[in-house]
Write a structure and sequence with these properties.
single chain; about 350 residues; alpha/beta; Pyruvate Kinase, Chain: A, domain 1; 13 helices
Length: about 350
Amino acid sequence: MMQSEYLRAVDDLRESSGVVIPAFFPSATDIQLASDLLTDTALGCCSLLGSPARVCISVDGENPAADAARRLQTKYGLAVVVSARNKGKLGALHEGLTILVRDESLRYFLLVDQDGDHFPNELPNFVRAARHVASSAKHDRVLVLGRRSSRHHPMGYLRGELEELADRMLVDCLQYRAVREGVPLNLQFALLLDEFPDFHSGYKLLTRPLVTSFLENGVSLEGLSEDAVYRHAVEAVLTVEAVLSGGIIVSVARSTFNEQPITAFGQLNRCRLVADKIIWPARRLRVPAAFIGQWFENHLARLRLATLAPGGKEELIEIRNLVRQAFDLPELAREIEGPPFL
């Protein structure tokens, strides 16, 4: 039975929910545009929550986003925390959650990116989904993922393909851990129209037990650099730690613009970024190297990015090399092998 009554969800959003908005404006960003988008997102969230103090803008080190956040704090009463140093999105989320979890009345913690592409009007649906699963599964540890109808349209073809690769690999890793531990991976609330969840969406909800576990347990770097984990593997970390803490994964549809208003993706080393999204969860979940190597080949063969010659194929091969190096696997020929016929 559906347990997602709208008015009760709105009450829970108003009385029992908090929002963390991680904020960072790179030097190459249009600061005015970034500030406008952050303001729109933050005030939109405030309009739905009972108190602006339950909306926390967590600024990742001193940068122009701090000035924008402090103006909003002064004028509207939002919570603001500025990290001592620029550590990465995961660090900003950690700081923001640390602030909000002190309010013991909060049961739902929503993570909303600053870019204007995560619409506050959809916050009630995340709470409705969490309420439904908590009631249906009799379980208070719930992770809700904001599922985009398309990765390719808002983010571009290249990034859409790369996120699909990372998502598919993460499913494989979680399934391996489930079999090894004898605990079936519950995806009944996460897969309705898709083959794999939208793990790398920046719009999420965690229930209080998952947040307290995340804050208490900390994050293991698994032999990787801090940048790899706190900047690159952020969404994988949140997902894996939630599952390891007994969380059930839920998907709820979320809207996006047809093209993201602003993004820092083009300023990053794409191959390193995607490789780290794959390497960290594989190490955290103790997946053997041979499995990682074969799963990677399984997914490369189906990605259409390889047909975008020559750049798409070369980018996938570079990611493959980085992943294989991390697991001491020998380098393969610079080819992608798959079935001979369609």
